[in-house]
Amino acid sequence: MVTGVRTRAVHGGKEDLGGLGLHVPPIDLSTTYPVPDQAAGGAALADWADGLADAASPVYARLHNPTVARFERALADLEGVDSAVSFASGMAAMTAVLQAACLMRGRPHVVAVRPLYGGTDHLLATGLLGTETTYARAGDIASAIRPDTGLVVLETPANPNLDLTDIAAVVRAAGEVPVLVDNTFATPVLQNPAAHGAAYVLHSGTKYLGGHGDVLGGVVACAEPLAGPLRQLRILTGAVLHPLGGYLLHRGLATLPLRVEAATRTASELASRLAEHSAVESVRYPGLTGGPLLGTQLREPGAMLAFEPVGDPYAVVGKLGLITPAVSLGSVDTLIEHPGALTHRLVGESDREACGVSSSLLRVSAGLEDVDDLWDDLDQALRVAAADRPRG
Ligand SMILES: *Cc1c(COP(=O)(O)O)cnc(C)c1O
């Protein structure tokens, strides 16, 4: 009986390879599949249309792809649920859940806890899909729920300020309403929201799951009865993950535990040093600010941190030489960005400030470099920017 996360990350989704005489998963690029028995092909098509996880033939690449399905089985196993359904991107995955939980069930109301990834926040705030959103604090969810509420949306650790929220408490407050937890920051290595009652666990696979900054994808892990409608939507909206993306995400899972463990050690060290630095006002890192949920819900503090420099945050980024100034996260190299300018630009400034995302906040995704090289880069940039700041 295999239970270790490293073992499952390496072997998950590869159960059929031995029978195929293969060591590495094949990349199946077929767009169509011969069905000499057209009646049997039709039965398979009907199975996919019903949202089933398996059928006698893929029939057509928009209905099913074996390479992608291996990644999904591996990810579902790491999240401790029956099923996972992948999409072309994290936002496509988010869209599918809103369609399945809200629009298909005639419950267009969403309750969301800020801060959220800027794209999710903007999708919910604009109501572009036909949903309507009430933003609530984690403690006020029960009173925000209405008879037409279809989904509660939560991100913990939150993007970008690393707030932790008690998933089980939110699930209790939501009652019958399913809760979606965006687990992109924690990864299944550090947190399994389904174990705390979350109905949908969402990942932007673009980040840690792929892990090398070269694949865009999204995935939702959930119980099989919730997965069927997501597959039905995916077939008809066409927001499928490309097989090459499925292959890269599956390959990324094998090193996910080691990458997350190494980057977490680096982030912990950077957070402690930043907290002592005279040119830093404040540091947000679950290892420093996480409270009682750290070690229980969130097993380790993770590889994301945020801080407010004393100097101009744009100047700090401009002085960096090694750390990559870019959005996204979870790659092999360390990335830094200004959420107010970039990832959370489309969230109104007052809403941003109200949920603790100040205009001086910088977000860092720790990579796999040597921590002292990263520190030398940060330290010089902080000092120069603090010395240059206008006085008065
Ligand atoms: C990037 C991100 C998303 C969106 O994912 P894409 O793959 O870019 O569509 C959603 N949630 C979080 C927390 C993210 O970081």
Q: What would you call the structural class? A: alpha/beta
| General shape | globular
- Give the N-terminus to C-terminus distance in angstroms: 65 Å
The strand order across the widest sheet is 1-7-6-5-4-2-3
Average of per-residue pLDDT values: 96
Number of domains: 2
Task: Indicate the CATH architecture of the largest domain.
Answer: 3-Layer(aba) Sandwich
Order of helices and strands: HHHHEHEHEHEHEHEEHHEHEHEEHEH
Name given to the CATH homologous superfamily of the largest domain:
Type I PLP-dependent aspartate aminotransferase-like (Major domain)
**Hetero groups:** pyridoxal-5'-phosphate
CATH class of the largest domain: Alpha Beta
Name the poorly predicted regions.
none
| Spatial extent as radius of gyration | 21 Å
CATH fold type of the largest domain: Aspartate Aminotransferase, domain 2
Strand-residue fraction? 5-15%
Helix amount: 40-55%
Largest sheet: 7 strands, mixed
Number of helices: 15
How would you describe this structure to a colleague?
It is a single chain. The protein has 392 residues and is an alpha/beta fold. It has two domains: 5-254, 3-Layer(aba) Sandwich (Aspartate Aminotransferase, domain 2), CATH 3.40.640; 257-387, Aspartate Aminotransferase, domain 1, CATH 3.90.1150.10. The protein contains 15 helices and twelve strands. The strands form two sheets. A seven-stranded mixed sheet has the order 1-7-6-5-4-2-3, sandwiched between helices. The protein has a five-stranded mixed sheet with strand order 8-9-12-11-10. Helix 1 runs antiparallel to helix 11, helix 5 (90-103) crosses helix 10 (224-237) and helix 11 (243-276) packs across helix 15. The protein is globular. The model has no long low-confidence stretch (mean pLDDT 96). The structure holds pyridoxal-5'-phosphate.
